[in-house]
Amino acid sequence: MDSHMADELVVPLKFLGDRVQFLFLLVLWQAMQDTVAGLTQALQNVVQAGNQAAAARNGAGDLHWNFRSLNPPRFSGSPDPDEAENWQEEIERIFQVTQCTNREKVVLATFQFTKDARAWWKATSAHLPNVAELEWARFLEIFRGKYFSERVKEKKAVEFAALKQKGMTVAEYEAQFAHLVVYAPHLVGTERLKANHFMDGLRPMFIERLGPYNIQTYTEMVQRAQLVEDTMAKVEGMRGKDNSKPVFVKNGAPNIAPTFCNNNKRLNAERDVAGDKRVKVEGRQLAENCKFCDKPGHRAEECWKKFGACLRCGGRDHRIPDCPMMKDQPGRAQNAPRRQGRLNAVIEADLPE
Description:
Elements: H1 3-69, H2 81-95, H3 102-111, H4 115-125, H5 136-147, H6 150-161, H7 170-180, H8 191-200, H9 204-210, H10 218-242, E1 247-250, E2 259-261, E3 270-271, E4 277-278, E5 280-281, E6 284-285, H11 304-307, H12 324-327, E7 345-348
Antiparallel strand pairs: 1-2, 1-7, 3-4, 5-6
């Protein structure tokens, strides 16, 4: 091979080597680009996952902070079902304004447990499968099974059956009735039964006024009872104003001078033809018994027994054995006919000057 041919062959080989080198570099650059893109995507995935985790942590922190800012009640595990019920109602009321899932409700609610309740939940949750996935409805079943036992429900039902108004106002009695009635639904299956049970627990004076109306609903019964109570209070107020003026009691006997009777003593009791004792104040017969001695004809603030007075004449300086009115009785003939009493006339007047 001569030199001329050698020169012609070197040039293509040289060109071919440069091209191969170029292709190699091109492939290498592409591979590097792919690697960088992959690393970039991987880095972006890591950053995104971190952001999501941080957002989740921040969201949980915000949820807990929002929940705590509403001042949720704590529960110590009291055996009183009323406390457990009040705690549940208050917690659920807070959940109504808190954006949380049913599982988050369980976490937030149990966070408020203290003392015995915390120890109970720690022991109970240890035996629950997938406690982290426990729903709110299932939690309430477990909670109420612990703090609302059948024995407690029966005790509350007995308390409801024996509930009486006694010294409570109608509003106070109704509040107690509404609180206990949930434990005895079998006693108030209909509106009429519920209304009648409410009336049966009222004081006799209310039953006397409400019974004739044959009220069919619980709501109407409560409203009418409150109306009766308001009316009675109004009448008592009017009587108080009437009794603020002094009165003179004029005896029916013509030879006895009028005597002054103040408001701290009862008017003299007379007997009618049948012998029944009646007491009238300003022409009106008192319908209620005294709340102190449970006797008819006077109020508690006028009761002789309450003030330790003589039960014969009302005097406060002696008792019945020493009563001047009793001293005259031995000399009276046993077979003497009983004189029919005269009804005292009550006349309002100003004090004489």
